[in-house]
Amino acid sequence: MNRETLTQLYDEAYAASYEQKFLKSSDFLPDVEHELALIRDFLANGGSWLDVACGTGFFLRQFPETERAGIDISPAMLKKAREGNPDIPLILHDFRDPLREWNNRWDLVSCMWYAYGLVSTVDDLSRLIENLWRWTSPGGNCFVPLADPRLISGVNLPYIAPTSYDGRVQVTGIIWSFTEDHGRKVHSHMLAPNIEFMVEQFQIFFERVAIVRYPSIQPEWPGRPALVASGKKVAAFPPYR
Question: Which domains does the chain have, with CATH numbers?
Answer without folding.
Answer: 3-145+195-232 (3.40.50.150)
